[in-house]
Amino acid sequence: MRLDKFLKISRIIKRRAVAKQIADQGRITINGKVAKSASKVAVDDQLVLNFGNKVLTVKVLDLKDTTKKKEATELYEVISEEYLENYDM
């Protein structure tokens, strides 16, 4: 499954266009490698997302084409969530 689609379906990022933009800026890695929006995501992959003021690390648990809001969190496990104090916009 494409990275941008997974991020939207899992509701880690609410809109696919935003997921594409963040990925294409080089702010997401899959298993330690910089990923683009079209990069493939598989079960057990580790994603690190740099939102600017926060770094989120998740492990992919499942892939589905569609999901309900309350089931979205079952697609991934949060490994760490780090807030950056000295972030300047």
UniProtKB/TrEMBL annotation:
Residue ranges constituting the RNA-binding S4 domain according to the UniProt record: 1-64
Function: Key component of the ribosome quality control system (RQC), a ribosome-associated complex that mediates the extraction of incompletely synthesized nascent chains from stalled ribosomes and their subsequent degradation. RqcH recruits Ala-charged tRNA, and with RqcP directs the elongation of stalled nascent chains on 50S ribosomal subunits, leading to non-templated C-terminal alanine extensions (Ala tail). The Ala tail promotes nascent chain degradation. RqcP is associated with the translocation-like movement of the peptidyl-tRNA from the A-site into the P-site.
Oligomeric form and interacting partners: Associates with stalled 50S ribosomal subunits. Binds to RqcH, 23S rRNA and the P-site tRNA. Does not require RqcH for association with 50S subunits.
Lineage of the organism: Bacteria, Bacillati, Bacillota, Bacilli, Lactobacillales
Family of the protein in this entry: Belongs to the RqcP family.
Domain of life: Bacteria
HAMAP family: RqcP
Gene Ontology biological process terms, A to Z: rescue of stalled ribosome
Entry protein name: RQC P-site tRNA stabilizing factor
InterPro entries with a match to the protein in the record: RqcP, S4_RNA-bd, S4_RNA-bd_sf
Keyword tRNA-binding on entry: yes
One GO MF term: tRNA binding
Keywords: Protein biosynthesis, RNA-binding, rRNA-binding, tRNA-binding
Pfam families the record matches: S4
